[in-house]
Design a protein that fits this description.
alpha+beta; three-stranded antiparallel beta sheet; two-stranded parallel ribbon; 11 helices
Length: 317
C-alpha cells in the first residue's frame, strides 16, 4: 500500500503544479525516486521469499550440519574452530600416503646429498685431528719430563668408526694411549697408568690445552692423588708455573703441593650440638700456612721438626 499511497500523492502534486509555478516539482521528483527505490526493494524481498519457499528444510539442514561439526570436534577432542587444522593435517597425511614412492625418492636424493656433505666435512675434520694429534703428542712428551715421567710415551690414537657409529662429531674415535715402561707398546691410558701417573698425564694435558682455552681460572681437585715425595714436589712446581699465567685453584692433601701456593685457604668440616654438618673456609696467614703444612707432614701432633720441614718446603719456592 505504501507505493500506491505515494502514487496518489504524486498525482495530487502534479495537479497542483499547474497552479503553483513549479513549487512542487522538486518534491514530485523526490517522491518519484522513492517510489522506484521501494519497487526495487520489493522485488528483492520477493526473490528472498521465493528462495526460502523453494527450500523449506534449510533450517533443519543447518542444524544437522552443526550437530555433525560438534560430533567431529568431540571425536578429535578439539574445539570446533580447530577442525579446519585437523582437516588440513589429515589431507597432508593422505597426500603423503598416496605419493609415498615419489616422496621417498626425494628423501633418498636429499639424504645422498647430505651424506656427501657429511663425508666431505668429516674428512677435513679427520685430517685436522691427525695434524693436531702430532703436535699434541710432542707437547705432552715435553711436559712429562718435569713431572718425573721421562721414560713415558704418549700417543693420540685416531681410528675411523663404522658407518652406524658416525655422529655430529665426525667419523673418528679419539683415544689416548701411553706406555710408562721403556720398550713396551702403548695401550689405553685408563688401563696402563696408575692413579698417580694418570694424574700427571692429566695435568700435562691440562697445562697444554689451557693455552687454547679462554678460561681465566683452572681448578684441580687432588690432581696429585697417588703421588708423593719428589714426584709430588714436581707436580707442585708445575702447578706453580701454571699459576703464574692464570688463576689456578688446587685442592690438595699433599704438603709438597700446598707449599707452592701463593694464597692458602683451609677448608674445615664441623658438627654442631644437633649433629648438623657444615663446611667453612679460612684464609691462612704465613704463620698459619707453616702450621698447616707441618700438620700435613706429621698428622695431628705437630713437632718442631715438622715445622722446620714445612718452612723448608715453602722456602724452596
Amino acid at each position: 500500500g505504501l507505493i500506491t499511497s505515494i502514487g496518489k500523492i504524486q498525482n495530487i502534486l502534479e495537479k497542483e503544479l499547474e497552479f503553483s509555478e513549479k513549487k512542487f516539482e522538486p518534491l514530485i521528483n523526490n517522491f518519484s525516486n522513492a517510489c522506484l527505490e521501494l519497487i526495487e526493494a520489493e522485488t528483492e524481498l520477493s526473490k528472498i521469499k521465493n528462495s526460502l519457499n523453494q527450500n523449506p528444510n534449510k533450517l533443519e539442514e543447518i542444524d544437522e550440519r552443526l550437530f555433525e561439526i560438534r560430533n567431529l570436534a568431540r571425536k578429535h577432542k578439539v574445539n570446533t574452530n580447530e577442525l579446519e587444522n585437523i582437516k588440513d593435517n589429515l589431507e597432508n597425511e593422505l597426500y603423503k600416503i598416496e605419493n609415498k614412492d615419489r616422496l621417498i625418492k626425494q628423501c633418498e636424493e636429499k639424504l645422498n646429498l647430505l651424506k656427501k656433505d657429511y663425508i666431505n666435512i668429516s674428512s677435513k675434520i679427520s685430517q685436522k685431528r691427525n695434524e693436531a694429534a702430532i703436535i699434541l703428542d710432542k707437547k705432552v712428551k715435553d711436559e712429562l719430563v718435569p713431572l718425573k715421567l721421562n721414560d713415558a710415551n704418549f700417543r693420540t690414537s685416531i681410528t675411523k668408526l663404522d658407518v652406524n657409529q658416525w655422529s655430529k662429531n665426525g667419523w673418528d674415535k679419539v683415544h689416548f694411549q701411553v706406555s710408562t715402561i721403556p720398550g713396551t707398546d702403548c695401550g689405553p691410558i685408563e688401563k696402563i697408568s696408575s692413579g698417580g701417573e694418570l694424574s700427571r698425564f692429566l695435568l700435562a694435558m691440562k697445562v697444554i690445552l689451557s693455552k687454547y682455552e679462554n678460561s681465566k681460572t683452572i681448578i684441580f681437585d687432588e690432581v696429585d692423588s697417588g703421588v708423593g715425595g719428589s714426584v709430588a714436589a714436581a707436580v707442585g712446581k708445575r702447578l706453580e708455573k701454571l699459576g703464574s699465567s692464570m688463576q689456578t685453584l688446587v685442592i690438595t692433601h699433599s704438603p709438597q703441593v700446598a707449599s707452592k701456593g701463593n694464597s692458602h685457604i683451609k677448608i674445615s668440616k664441623t658438627r654442631d650440638n644437633e649433629n648438623n654438618l657444615s663446611s667453612s673456609t679460612k684464609k691462612l696467614s704465613f704463620e698459619e700456612k707453616v702450621e698447616e703444612i707441618a700438620r700435613m707432614l706429621s698428622a695431628d701432633k705437630i713437632s718442631e721438626q715438622a715445622r722446620a720441614a714445612a718452612l723448608k718446603l715453602i722456602q724452596e719456592n
